[in-house]
Amino acid sequence: MAEDIKLGVYLCDCGGTLSKEIDFPEIQSRLEKIPDIKHIGLAHSLCSTGDLERTGSEIGEKGINRVVIGACSPRLYEARFMGAMEKSGLNPHLLSLANIREQCAWVHPHRSKATQKAVKQLEMAVKNARFLEPIEGEAVSVNRDVLIIGGGISGMEAALALSELDHKVTLLEREKVLGGRLRDLHSLYPLEVTPEALLTKKIEVLNKRANIEVMTQAELLKVEGQLGNFKVQIRAGHSQITRSFGALVVATGCDTRFAKEKYGLELSDEIITPLQLERMLKSSEDWPKIPQKIGFLLDISDEFSRISTISAFRNGLAAKRRFGSEVYIFCKNLKLDTHGMERIYREVRNRGVIFFKFGEKKPEISRANGQINVQLEDLYLGKERVNLSFDLLVVDEQVIPQKGFENLASLLHIALDPRSFYQPANVHLYPVASNRKGIFLAGSCRADLDFPDTVADGRAAAEAVHQLLFPGEIWVDVRKVMVDADKCVLCLTCIRSCPHRAIEVDPVKKAAKVVDVACQGCGICAGECPAKAIQLNGFTDQEIGVQLEFLKEAV
Amino acid sequence: MEEKRVLVIGGGVAGITSALELAHHGKRVFLVEKEPNIGGHAASFCCKAAEKCNKCSVCVLPEKIGEAGAHPQISLLTASEVREVNGEAGDFRVKIARQARFVDPDRCTACGLCGEACPLELPKAIHPPFAGAVPSAFVVDRDRCLRFQGKECRSCQDKCPAGAIDFDQTSQKMDLEVGAIVVATGFDVFDAREKALFGYGKYPNVMTGLDLEERFLHGGSIFLPSNGKPPQDVAFIQCVGSRDEHIGNGYCSKVCCKYAMRFSRLLQYQNPEAKITMFYMDLQMAGKGFADFYEQCKGSIRFVQGIPVEISPVSEDRLGVRFEDPWPGKISEENYDLVVLSVGISPRKEARNQAKILGINLGDFGFFDSLNPLENTCTNIEGIFLAGCCQGPKDIPETIAHSTQAALRVIRSLS
Amino acid sequence: MTENKNGFSPKIAAFCCFHSAYQAADMAGATRHAYADGIYIIRVPCAGKVEGLHILQAFEKGADGVLVLACPEESCHFISGNIRAKKRVNHILQVLEEIGLEPERLKIFNLASNQALRFLQVVNGMAQRIKDLGPSPIKAGNSGR
Amino acid sequence: MIVGERKSLEEIRKMINGYKKVLVAGCGTCVTVCFAGGEKEVATIASALRLAAQKGGDAVEISEATIQRQCDIEFIQELKEKVEQADAVLSMGCGAGVQTIAETFGGKPVLPALNTRFIGRTEEQGIWSERCAACGDCILHLTGGICPIARCSKSILNGPCGGSKDGKCEIKSEVDCAWQLIYDRLKSLGQLDLLEKIIPVKDWSASRDGGPRKQVREDMKL
Predict the structure, then answer these.
(1) Which of A429, B128, C10, C107 is most buried, judged by most C-beta within 10 A?
(2) pLDDT tens across the length of chain C (145 residues)
(3) CATH classification of D2-118, choosing from 3.30.565.10, 3.30.460.10, 3.40.50.2300, 3.40.50.10260?
(4) In terms of CA atoms, which chain D residue is nearest residue C62?
(5) Is there a contact between C110 and B136 if contact means CB atoms under 8 Å apart?
(6) Please, which chains are in contact with A (at least 3 CB pairs closer than 8 A)?
(7) In this complex, is the C-beta atom of B79 within 8 Å of any C-beta atom belonging to chain C?
(8) Among candidates B147, B134, B121, B155, which has minimal Cα distance to B19?
(9) How many B-C residue pairs are in contact by the CB < 8 A criterion?
(10) Ranges of CATH 3.40.50.2300 domains, chain D
(11) Whole-number Cα distances in Å, A461 to A181, A218, A433, A446
C-alpha cells in the first residue's frame, strides 16, 4: 500500500485506576518520539459509549489509518473498538491492541516494571500496526434448503422443526418407509403414545408440509462444495438427482447386535433379542407357547447402553400384562440417568418384576429340557447362588455403528470417534456439530441416547442449522487466510491437516484455496505449510516476528 | 418490525445458552439473575482435565459468559428477581425487583481502588467477584461493610474514580413487557448435612463434590483440612441426596457418577499413589464417550457396589467408613483420609414460590413440570418454557441441548 | 519476584491459545495475581498456529525460555490444533538438542480457559526453572541476521 | 517424487565449519513436499545454525533463499547475487539440485544438507515410501503394477524367495513381501498366468550399471 501510515494511539487508564501501576506520562513521552504516530490520546474509559464516539470521530478527522490501543484484554472490548473504527470509516482490522491491564498493570506490582512492559508492548503494537492490512468482509449468500440423511425419529424431528422455521427440507431414507427403529417397537413406555400413533401422526404432518420432500429407498452418492452450497448427488429409487443444499444433517441412527462371544451361546426360539420380543409383542397373533417365566439379561452384550434397560422394563411389563408371566431382570448396573427413570423402576418393581444384580462374574446360562437355566451370585444374596429356569430368555444387545458409517463419513469428509460412531472426541463443546461447518449430526448415530434425547437431538440440530442459514447469507472475512499461489507447491499438507476441510485445490491457479465460508481461522494450515505459502492475517510471520522483538534487550 | 422481547430467568449455563441462542436469532433478551453476576453454579466448577480433557464441559462457560455480557441484544439484569407475571403468551407483563447493589455495573471498571479504600482488614467489604465474572463490577459484602453495621463510612464511594458507587441506591422496581419467558432457574446443590450419619460439617475430612470443585478451582489441588497433606486413601460415596425416597429425592441426579470418576482421575493424576474407592448403587454412564472413560477408570479406581451407612472418625486424620461389602457379603469398616460425598441436584427451594408467580406446575420432587417427555421445555402455560436443571437434573451438554431447544420453542411461539 | 542476586530476570515468550490459556491469563490478571514480568504473552488463535520456526526465532531474539500453552488434549477448539502443537514442539526439542540448548527451555502445557491458577503455576514454574538454568547462551541482537 | 532427509545438525555444522557466510538454499519441488528442504525447512535450519553458532561462539552469517527448482539453471540464476555474497552454499535440494548449483557457480563450494534417499510416494501425511529404483527398464506391466526391483529387498525378478513369511519380508519384518503383493494383485486382476512366465534376466545396462545416464529428445532441443 502506497498510502502513508498515520498511527493513532489510544491509551486507557481504566477510570484512572491503572495510573497507580502504570506511568502513563512516561508511556506518552516514549511514544511521542515515534514519527509516524500522529495522535496519542489518553482516555479514562475507552470502552464507554462517549469515549468510543470521540475516538471514532478523531480517527476520521485526523485521517488516522492505523489504530493502536493500550487497554484491557481484547477478550473484553476488541469487538467494540473495531465497531467504532468501522463507524469512522476505517477497516476494523487495522487495529493492534496491547493488553496493558491484565498483562501489565494487574500482574506486575512494581510500577517501573509494569510501565516498562507496557511501553514495550505498545512499541510492538505500533510496529505490528504498520504491517496491518485491511481484511474485507463479504456476504456469501447461502442456500437455505437442508438435506437430512436418515428418516428415523431424530431425522423426522429435525425435518419438522426446520420446516416450521421455513426451510425447505429433503428427507432421505434408505428403506421404503420412514420411522427407523421406532417401527419395531410395540410401546414407548412410559410415554402413553404408541409408536404407531406417534409415527402415523409425524408422517402425516411431514406429508402435509409443502416444504418437506421425502425420498425413500434413497442414498447419497456424492457430496461436493461447502456450507451454504453443498452439491449433492442422490439416488432415489431408480433415478439420480443432483441438488444443492445449504446444510446437511446426518441422522442415520445406530445398529444393535447380539454379542454372541460375550454370552457364549446362540440365539434360539427360547433365547431371543429384545427386538424379536418387541415384534412378537407387537403382533396380535397368538404365540405358539405362552411363556410362564421370562428372564431379561442386561449389561452383557453392552455394559453401557441405556436402551436395554428401558426396553427390559417396557417388555417385562407388557409380557406380564399380556400373559401374566413371571418376569426377572438380571443386570449389573441399572441405567437410571434418564428423566423419570427412578420412578419407573420403582413402578416396575411394584408390579412384581424381580431384579437380580450380578457383579464381575457373569451369570451362567445353560439349557435343560427346553428350559433355559440362569445361575448367578446376586449382589444382595452373596454366596448363595440363585438358580432359575425360564421359558424365554431375552438377551441384551450391543449398540454398534451402522455398516454404512465409514462410507458416509468419507463421502462427507467427517470424522468418526474411536467406536466408529460419528463425531470425534472433543465435540462435547459443540453437541450436534461435526468437524465441518454446515454438516450436523443428530441422534444415536453420534451417541447412545434414549428416546426423548434422540427427539431432542433432532431439534437441536435443526436449531443449529437454522441459526447458520436463516439470514440467507453469511458474513465472512475474505483473505483471512492468504495463500500465495506462486509459492504453493500443492503438497496437499494443508488440505489434509485442515480439521474443518476448508481447503480445496484451485484448479485454475493450481494452488490451495481456502474456502472462506468454511474456514474457522485456526491457522493450523499456516503452521503446517512447508513452502510458507499460507499466512493467517493478524498472525503473519511478520506480525509474530515483531512481537518476538519484545525479547530483545531494551536498547 | 416490532422487536420480540424475551425474558430469561436465571443466568446459569441454561439461561445464558437460551439467551445467546435467542440473541443470535435477533431477539431482544432480558436476562434476570438474582446474584450480582451471571454464571450460576458452573462458574464455581473446576476443569477436570488430567493427562487429557475429561470432558466435564465446564470450560464452555467462560466464553459463553463473556459473549452474553458483550452481546448487544442481551440486557443483563443482575441482582434482580421476578416478582410478578401477568398476561399471556405474546404479551407478558413482568415486574422485576432490582436489589440495590451499590456498584453500577455499567460504570465500574473493576480497578480495585475501592477495595484499597475500604478501612476493613482483609477480606475487604468491597471486592471483585469471581475471576472472569460478568459483569466484572465489584460487589459489596453486606455482612462486613460498616454501613450495614450502622456505621458511617463512604471511603470507597469517595475514592471511586468512575463514580460507580452509590450507597444511596435503594432497591428498584422495573416493569417489562415480553412475548415469551424462559425459566432457567437451575438447582440447589443437595445439602449433605441432611445425611447426618455421614458427618458432613462435623468431620473436616468429609467433603462434598462441590467442595472439591471449589478447592480445585481456587487451589489447583486438594489437601486434607485436618493436616494439610495430599489425600492418599479417598472414598467417594455416590447418591448422596439422590435416588433417596426417604429425603424426598427419588431420582438420579445424573451428574455425580461422572464427576466422581473425573475427580478420581484428576486426584490420581496429581498423586499417582492415591488409592480411590467409589461406593455406588448403579453406575450411570450416559453421555458421549463416557463408556471409554469408564474403561480407563476401571484399572485405577476400586468400585464397590453398596452405599456406606455411617462415617465415624478413627483418629484425627482418618475416617472409618462402614459399609456392606457385597461379594463376601459382610459388614466391613475401612479407613480413609478423605471421604467425598457425591452430592446431587435438588430442586430450588424457591421453586414453589416461583411456580406460583409464573403460574406453572410443579412436578415430581419439586422440579418444574414439563408438558410431556417429548416436549420437555414446554409448560402448562403457553409462552413460558423451561431450560436446564429447573426441569430436572442434567449435565452441562444436556443443559445446553435443552436450553437450545427451549430457545427454539420460544422462536416458534413468537412467530 | 523472579530476580535473583545477579539480577537475572528470565525472558519467556508464552504463545497462548486465545481460547484457553489467553483467557486463563486474563483471569489470573483479574484476580491480581502477580507473575514474573519477563513473561510475554503472544496471542495465537490456536496452539496449532505456532510454528517450530517461531520457537527457534524466539530463542534467536533472546528468549531464555519458550512456552506453548494449548487447550487440554481432546478439548481443542479446532479439534487437532493442540496435538499438532505438541508434535511440533517435540520436533523442535530435538532440534534444540542438536543445537545444544537445554530442552527445559521449551515446554508445552495444556490448560483450560478457567484455569487461572494453573496458568500462574505454569508460568511461575517455568520462570523458576529458567532462573535455575541461567540466561540463554544465545545473545540477542548479534544473531547475524 | 524424490524423497530426502535432513542430515544431522552436527554433520552440517562440520561441513560449513570455516565459512563465514553461508547461503542456505531451498528447493520448492520434491523436497518441499517431503518436508526436507522447502522454505520453512530452510528458515528452520538457518535459525538452528545461527543459534548453534552463537552458542559455540562462532561468527557465521546465514542467509536464506528458496527457489522453484534446483535442477534447472534458470531458477538457480535467481540465487546469483546471494551466492556471490556467500562463502559457501548449503543446498537443501536433492543430489541433482546440489550438483546443478555447483555446476552453475563453479567457484563456490556447494554442500549437501540432505541425504537424497529414494523415489517414492506419500503413503500418508508424514510417511513416504520407496516405489521406483530408476532401473531404466520398466517391467511393471508384468508384475501387477508392483515393482519387485524397488520393493523386494533382494530385487528378485521371479519371486518370492524362501524368506517370504506371512506376507512379510525376512530382511525387515515390517516390510511387505513385494512378491506376496504382486501375487495378491495379479490374483485380483485375474492375471495369475503372468506368474507362470519367467521374467528374463534384466538388462542392467539401462540402470546404473551402464554408467551415468543421459536422455536426449531431439525434437525438444532448440
Answers:
(1) C10
(2) 444 445 788 999 999 999 999 999 998 998 888 999 899 999 999 999 999 999 999 999 999 999 999 999 988 999 899 999 999 999 999 999 999 999 999 999 999 998 999 999 999 999 999 999 999 998 654 444 3
(3) 3.40.50.2300
(4) D51
(5) no
(6) B, C, D
(7) no
(8) B134
(9) 67
(10) 2-118
(11) 20, 21, 8, 12
